[in-house]
Amino acid sequence: MDIPADWARTDMAACEFDFEQWAPPGAARCGFGGGVAFYASATFDPGHRPGVRRTDSTDEPAWGGYAYAGGFAIYASDDDRGVVRRILHSAR
C-alpha cells in the first residue's frame, strides 16, 4: 500500500468500531476525518461504485473513494485527490 509516510496507524481499541486505520497527523482518533481504513469486504456497504469521487459532506476531506483488494475494502479520503488515487491504485 502506498500510504503517505507521515500518516500513522490509529489506535482504535477504545473506539466504537475497531478496524485498521492510518491517518494524517492531528486526525481524530475515533472519527474518520481522512486517511485510509480497511474493512472486511463482506460487510462493507458502499453508497457508490469503486473509485475516487468528490465527497458531499463539509465534515470530510474533499475527495474519497474505495477499492477492493482480497477480502478487504480499502477506503481512502484526503483533500488531495492525487493522494487518494495513489492509495487506491496501490491496493492489491
Describe the structure.
There is one protein chain. By secondary structure, this protein is mostly beta strands. It is 11% helix and 33% strand. The chain is built from 1 helix and 6 strands; from the N terminus they run E-E-E-E-E-E-H. The chain has a 6-stranded antiparallel sheet with strand order 1-2-3-6-5-4. 25% of the residues are buried. The mean pLDDT is 90.
Instruction: Indicate the mean pLDDT.
Output: 90
Beta-strand level of the residues, as a percent range? Answer: 25-35%
Distance between the termini: 8 Å
> What's the total number of strands?
6
Instruction: Quickly count the helices.
Output: 1
Spans of at least 5 consecutive residues whose pLDDT stays below 50 are: none
Oligomer: single chain
> How can the largest sheet be summarized?
6 strands, antiparallel
- What structural class is derived from the secondary structure elements? mainly beta
| Helix and strand element order | EEEEEEH
**Percentage of helical residues?**
10-25%
Strand order of the largest sheet: 1-2-3-6-5-4
> Radius of gyration in whole Å, from Cα?
12 Å
Instruction: Give the overall shape.
Output: globular
